[in-house]
Specification:
Length: 213
């Protein structure tokens, strides 16, 4: 009986080692843990974001914005990371497009008039005052995925429907026409930090991707 017990323990130990993902030893995983991002963005979102951060040169400030649309609007899923100093500067709520889904964003588009959010990498532009107040231009960097962001007027702006107090009344945040809309009390502060060339990555899983061609 004792031999059987030790055999079971040995098999369990071997399986544990074999099942331990290599990711746990990677530099990206270590940085993810160091930044304490698990409550704001998933590791797959961070991992893909970092790969893009290496590909697309960021501005000198080293600000990196991550949005994880695999998380519900009832949770914080927007963060700003200072890559130079390895600090999370902001972690907050963000709304998605009204045609992207209810509490979860599951449908995405690059088409004008779709009222859906877009995925992929963006570059922040200049700030400006528009119909939604203090706002920030975004330029999509991926052809066919988000390169119509300017044409669609997809920008960062503040909105009352993005305030977390809305969740208690309707069970989710309100929704935009496709813009990543932030709580109004923190919108200006975030825009002033990330404007002028920061990289922004929106991660999500499209349940009905548009046909190409």
């Amino acid at each position: 009986m004792l031999k059987v017990y030790f055999l079971i323990l040995w098999v369990f130990a071997i399986e544990s080692v074999q099942c331990q993902p290599e990711i746990m030893m990677s530099e990206k995983w270590q940085l993810y843990q160091e930044l304490g991002l698990s409550e704001t963005v998933s590791y797959p979102a961070f991992e893909q974001g970092i790969e893009g951060y290496k590909q697309y040169k960021a501005e000198e400030k080293g600000m990196f914005v991550l949005i994880d649309f695999t998380k519900p609007s009832t949770e914080k899923r927007f963060c700003v990371v200072d890559m130079k100093h390895k600090q999370v500067l902001f972690s907050t709520y963000v709304a998605h497009g009204r045609k992207s889904g209810e509490n979860y964003a599951v449908f995405f588009s690059n088409e004008p008039g779709s009222n859906k959010s877009s995925l992929g990498f963006f570059r922040t532009g200049d700030s400006y005052y528009g119909k939604n107040g203090y706002s920030l231009f975004l330029d999509g960097l991926e052809e066919g995925i988000n390169d119509k962001a300017r044409e669609r007027a997809i920008v960062i702006h503040g909105a009352n429907y993005s305030d977390p107090s809305v969740i208690q009344g309707q069970g989710r945040l309100g929704r935009s026409l496709g813009c990543p809309a932030l709580p109004p009390l923190i919108n200006r502060e975030i825009i002033d930090v990330i404007k002028g060339g920061s990289l922004l990555y929106i991660y999500g899983k499209d349940q009905h991707p548009e046909r190409k061609g």
